[in-house]
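Lab manual, section 2.4: Encoding a predicted structure.

Procedure: take the sequence of the chain (92 residues), apply the prediction step described in section 2.3, and record the output as C-alpha coordinates. A sample record is shown.
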Amino acid sequence: MPQQKRKGHLNQAVEECLSFLESRCAKEGIEVVRLLSPDLPEVFADPIQLNQVLVNMIINAIQAMPGGGKLTVQTLPGKDHVSLIVEDTGPG
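Recorded output:
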Protein backbone atom coordinates (compact mmCIF):
# COMPACT_ATOMS: atom_id res chain seq x y z
CA MET A 1 0.00 0.00 0.00
CA PRO A 2 1.21 3.53 -0.62
CA GLN A 3 2.22 5.49 2.44
CA GLN A 4 -0.43 7.64 4.05
CA LYS A 5 1.54 9.93 6.33
CA ARG A 6 -0.15 12.25 8.78
CA LYS A 7 0.56 13.95 12.07
CA GLY A 8 0.12 11.82 15.16
CA HIS A 9 1.30 11.19 18.69
CA LEU A 10 4.06 8.61 19.14
CA ASN A 11 3.12 7.98 22.78
CA GLN A 12 -0.42 7.11 21.72
CA ALA A 13 0.90 4.64 19.15
CA VAL A 14 3.16 3.07 21.79
CA GLU A 15 0.29 2.76 24.28
CA GLU A 16 -2.00 1.16 21.68
CA CYS A 17 0.68 -1.35 20.73
CA LEU A 18 1.53 -2.19 24.34
CA SER A 19 -2.13 -2.65 25.26
CA PHE A 20 -2.34 -5.18 22.44
CA LEU A 21 0.78 -7.10 23.57
CA GLU A 22 0.87 -6.57 27.34
CA SER A 23 -1.07 -9.74 28.17
CA ARG A 24 1.42 -11.77 26.13
CA CYS A 25 4.26 -10.13 28.06
CA ALA A 26 2.58 -11.02 31.36
CA LYS A 27 2.17 -14.66 30.26
CA GLU A 28 5.90 -14.76 29.39
CA GLY A 29 6.91 -13.28 32.76
CA ILE A 30 8.01 -9.98 31.20
CA GLU A 31 7.65 -6.75 33.13
CA VAL A 32 6.72 -3.80 30.90
CA VAL A 33 8.16 -0.40 31.82
CA ARG A 34 6.92 2.75 30.10
CA LEU A 35 9.10 5.86 30.13
CA LEU A 36 7.06 8.06 27.83
CA SER A 37 7.96 11.73 27.67
CA PRO A 38 4.83 13.83 28.17
CA ASP A 39 6.04 16.72 26.01
CA LEU A 40 6.66 15.02 22.66
CA PRO A 41 5.80 16.94 19.52
CA GLU A 42 3.60 15.22 16.97
CA VAL A 43 5.35 13.09 14.36
CA PHE A 44 4.59 12.91 10.65
CA ALA A 45 4.33 9.21 9.82
CA ASP A 46 2.16 6.50 8.34
CA PRO A 47 0.26 5.14 11.39
CA ILE A 48 -0.04 1.64 9.93
CA GLN A 49 3.69 1.39 9.25
CA LEU A 50 4.51 2.92 12.65
CA ASN A 51 2.31 0.35 14.36
CA GLN A 52 3.96 -2.48 12.41
CA VAL A 53 7.44 -1.30 13.42
CA LEU A 54 6.40 -1.09 17.08
CA VAL A 55 4.79 -4.55 17.03
CA ASN A 56 7.86 -6.08 15.37
CA MET A 57 10.26 -4.51 17.87
CA ILE A 58 8.21 -5.63 20.86
CA ILE A 59 7.68 -9.16 19.49
CA ASN A 60 11.44 -9.43 18.92
CA ALA A 61 12.05 -8.33 22.51
CA ILE A 62 9.53 -10.89 23.82
CA GLN A 63 11.20 -13.65 21.81
CA ALA A 64 14.60 -12.61 23.17
CA MET A 65 13.42 -13.26 26.75
CA PRO A 66 11.93 -16.77 26.83
CA GLY A 67 12.54 -17.00 30.58
CA GLY A 68 11.01 -13.62 31.37
CA GLY A 69 12.67 -10.28 31.93
CA LYS A 70 12.02 -6.59 31.54
CA LEU A 71 10.90 -4.67 28.46
CA THR A 72 11.43 -0.91 28.59
CA VAL A 73 9.86 1.41 26.03
CA GLN A 74 10.98 5.03 26.16
CA THR A 75 10.21 8.13 24.12
CA LEU A 76 12.31 11.29 24.19
CA PRO A 77 12.05 14.66 22.46
CA GLY A 78 15.05 15.97 20.52
CA LYS A 79 15.83 19.30 18.93
CA ASP A 80 14.38 18.34 15.56
CA HIS A 81 13.30 14.73 16.11
CA VAL A 82 11.79 12.31 18.59
CA SER A 83 13.43 9.11 19.80
CA LEU A 84 11.86 5.73 20.46
CA ILE A 85 13.99 3.36 22.53
CA VAL A 86 13.01 -0.28 23.05
CA GLU A 87 15.22 -2.26 25.43
CA ASP A 88 14.97 -5.79 26.74
CA THR A 89 16.98 -7.82 29.22
CA GLY A 90 17.45 -10.74 26.83
CA PRO A 91 20.91 -12.20 26.27
CA GLY A 92 21.38 -10.71 22.77
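Check your result against the sample. The first strand starts at residue 6 and ends at 8.
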